[in-house]
Amino acid sequence: MKRKILVAGLGLIGGSLALAMKKSPENHILGFDLQKETLQIALEEQIIDESYTNFEEAVKQAKIVILAAPISETIKLMKKMDTIELNHDIILSDVSSVKGSILQAANEMINNRITFIGGHPMAGSHKAGIQAAKGHLFENAIYVLTPTTSCSNGKIEVLKEVLKETKSNFLILNPEEHDEMTSVISHFPHLIASSLVHQAKKWEQMHQYLPELAAGGFRDITRIASSNPKMWQDIFQHNGEQMSRLLQDWINEMVTLKEFLDKNNKEEMIVYLDQAKKYRDGLGEKTTRGALPSFYDVYVDVKDQPGAIASVVQLLADEEISIRNIRILEIRDSINGALRLSVTNQKDQQRAYNVLKNNNYDVTIEA
Ligand SMILES: NC(=O)c1ccc[n+]([C@@H]2O[C@H](COP(=O)([O-])OP(=O)(O)OC[C@H]3O[C@@H](n4cnc5c(N)ncnc54)[C@H](O)[C@@H]3O)[C@@H](O)[C@H]2O)c1
After folding, report:
1. Same structural domain for residues 122 and 84?
2. What is the DSSP string of 69-96?
3. Domain for residue 289, yes or no?
4. How distant, in Å, are the alpha carbons of 73, 274, 278, 350, 359 from that of 286?
5. pLDDT by residue for the chain (367 residues), tens digit each?
6. If exposure means fewest CB atoms within 10 Å of the residue's CB, which of 44, 49, 111, 171 is most exposed?
7. Pocket of ligand 1, candidates 6, 30, 33, 55: which has the most ligand atoms within 8 Å of its Cβ, to mutate?
8. Which of 282, 306, 327 is the last residue of a domain?
9. The domain containing residue 188 runs over which residues?
10. Which CATH number covers residue 339?
11. CATH number for the domain that contains residue 104
């Protein structure tokens, strides 16, 4: 018999998870969402097998429930689930970007039919809604699991099996570790990206050509500011204490930087920038020994003409080098090359370099 899995909240993340899990013939996907139109699309596009407009009815049918609504709504759904009378056991998970408040809600649940295992698939997009869902969204991504202390290893294995088709790398963390790390590498950078955009907007009043100059570095560093504002407000609210601590840390750091500038302290400034560069350059190497996948980049200068990128990609395909990421860099002034190709290991990086070089491309592996 097939496993009945309910996904509640069929937006970008819920829809993508449903699509991935549906690839397994053992999974039968039920869907619930507050928006009727979303449910209709999910059925029409065969993202789910069955749709439900009543949460309780859907829960009663499922052995596994994955909540993929915004964080505050997820907590409400957990409270609702706690009150449902069940005659079978359920593994309950979620996808929320913050885990502390979710685990707190899980620990308050008294329904002994329910075992909670928190989840956070760490991939996304600046888009929202079911139309943006993709079955391959989580391939090679980290999928953090934060089980409750009473959860058995057996149940964690069941959940991993259900999620196998996401092709992600599972990593078990406690909620505090998760929230501290994600606030540093994801949530806080988002806040800074938004503040940089505000700064540019303010200065545009004085310099009308500023948007024209805002290419390359500025676009790279502020890309995440284009994401769903409601979702990010929800994340900031649920990780508020940590965000406030980091912001204070950042303000102190900016005061130090201001002092370097005001006192024209060249040596200190070079040391500061050099330490940042070394740490940033080494980030990929550090992750090779851990659970995080690392990418190796190759930069290649391509002409601005039709088919230029296809030719580069074809050369790598002929050598059976798998490209994990491809990016057109919008300026050519800081590095030698305008196309960045990411491969998964150093050997492929060198092979890609060689094949492109042999075909007379201007190529480098140093950013
Ligand atoms: N977007 C990302 O990059 C990303 C990455 C990882 C995790 N997450 C987490 O995933 C969750 C969903 O984010 P998303 O990007 O898919 O948002 P989304 O806006 O694309 O989708 C949310 C869906 O939930 C539905 N919904 C809202 N309240 C509901 C309720 N009470 N019951 C059932 N459905 C409800 C909405 O109708 C919508 O279809 C959030 O908790 C977020 O923290 C997001």
Report:
1. yes
2. S-HHHHHHHHHHHHTS--SS-EEEEE--
3. no
4. 36, 18, 12, 19, 32
5. 899 999 999 999 999 999 999 999 999 999 999 999 999 999 999 999 999 999 999 999 999 999 999 999 999 999 999 999 999 999 999 999 999 999 999 999 999 999 999 999 999 888 899 999 999 999 889 999 999 999 999 999 999 999 999 999 999 999 999 999 999 999 999 999 999 999 999 999 999 999 888 877 898 889 889 989 999 999 999 999 999 999 999 999 999 999 999 999 999 999 999 999 999 888 766 554 344 445 788 988 887 778 888 899 999 999 999 888 888 765 444 444 578 898 888 899 999 999 999 999 988 886 5
6. 44
7. 33
8. 282
9. 178-282
10. 3.30.70.260
11. 3.40.50.720
Count of CB atoms situated within 10 Å of the CB of 260: 17
In terms of domains, do 167 and 211 share one?
no
Q: Is 95 left (phi over 0), alpha (psi -120 to 50) or beta?
A: alpha
Domain boundary among 129, 149, 173: 173
Nearest CA to ligand 1 atom 40: 70
Residue 146 class from Cβ within 10 Å (0-12 exposed, 13-18 middle, 19+ buried)? Answer: buried
| pTM (predicted TM-score) | 0.83
Q: Which residue's CA lies nearest to atom 42 of ligand 1?
A: 96
| Ligand 1 pocket: which of 45, 56, 97 to mutate (most atoms within 8 A of CB) | 97
Structural tokens at position 62: 């499922």
Number of domains the chain is built from = 3
Tokens 């053992």 found at: 26
Q: Do 304 and 341 have their domain in common?
A: yes
Is residue 118 lining ligand 1, measured as CB closer than 6 Å? Answer: no
